[in-house]
Amino acid sequence: MLTKSQITKNWLPRYTGMPLQNFGSHILLTNFGNYVQRFSSMFDCKIYGKGRAMQAATNDDGLTIINFGIGSSNAATIMDLLSAISPKGVLFLGKCGGLKKSSEIGHFILPIAAIRGEGTSNDYFPPEVPALPSFKLHKFVSDKILAHKVDYRTGVIYTTNRRVWEHDERFHARLSDMTCIGIDMETATLFIAGHYNEIARGALLLVSDVPVTPDGVKTEKSDKMVTANWVDLHLQIGVEAMTQLGQQGEKIKHFRY
Known about the structure:
Layout: H1 4-16, E1 26-30, H2 33-43, E2 55-58, E3 63-67, H3 72-82, E4 89-98, E5 108-117, H4 135-147, E6 152-160, H5 169-178, E7 182-184, H6 187-196, E8 201-209, H7 220-248
């Protein structure tokens, strides 16, 4: 296998257990197995990849969901692998830490950009290239959020490779100086790798904790509360937005340079 296309067409099924012809033209990405399980229950569709690095399922509308794991390296991997099928749109349903008092647990964030603090994205473009979503895709997501009569925030997400930082006051100060609305480990990488692979992409993030306060750091108990109260709505909005995008046949142009 000497070309990227040969590698990704072999590796996407190898990582997910799902044949290439079973992938839909629109993709939901997540870090959590329970999202895939809920999707499978919603549409009575088979889950592939149990026991593999990633799990995936596709419904009858041609919408695929993939649990790609946690972290920027996995985010880059899945966006590279998806180039094997050239999807028409990819939406990341992730969780993030809120960095503002207005970003309370349970709020949704539709990022306008992400700061590339993870390092992985430097293998795709120079640091000066901004990590941006496809705003036309985000319009479909915004419309569905409002249709559910739910409020959401916009702002910049800081993406880091560092998982355990909540104790580090100097890092807290740096986050404050950057005026970000939230922090996660994938969004910037997904945006940059999507740009590199000419894939339309977006992210709808659920605030799952407020880690800049001692009592706001995520615990197993608090994460179960977030799952019980907001995950179904998070998934539903993503499904509706990407299904409508597919049904309307909207083409999101990627400009080449």
